[in-house]
Amino acid sequence: MPDYNGDDLDLRGLRRGAYVILGGIVCALGAAALMLRENGPAANTPPHAFAGNAPQLQPAPQPDRVAYLAEKRRLLASYGWVDRQAGIARIPLDDAMALLAARGGAAQPARGQVAPAAPGRTPPVLTPAREAR
């Protein structure tokens, strides 16, 4: 392996390369400035600054999130009407899974809906259901 003494490094070539790169950057910036001057601002730039009030953010949203999730858990574990006139009720999630398992696992689609398609097949187009009388 030959000894390296550092004399074979061409600093003029490195300097020229740096000048070429710098010149390219300057030319690109100049072209961008000319394009902005010619074409104006971007199409999605609003004509004037937003003058409304800023949205009010909660300083600590964690208690509201905890209450929201507790309400959802309560709904999942309780009986109640979703739509009494249409005859749609909700039952606890555990009871629903037990009923579904007892029937053999295949849930029947609700009236006016189409059963889900088999994997890898395109589902059928849904038609609007008739309105309740």
TrEMBL record:
Biased composition (Low complexity): 109-120
Transmembrane segments: 17-36
Keywords per UniProt: Membrane, Transmembrane, Transmembrane helix
Region (Disordered): 42-63, 109-133
Superkingdom of this protein's organism: Bacteria
Protein known as: Uncharacterized protein
Species this protein is from: Telluria antibiotica
Upper lineage: Bacteria, Pseudomonadati, Pseudomonadota, Betaproteobacteria, Burkholderiales
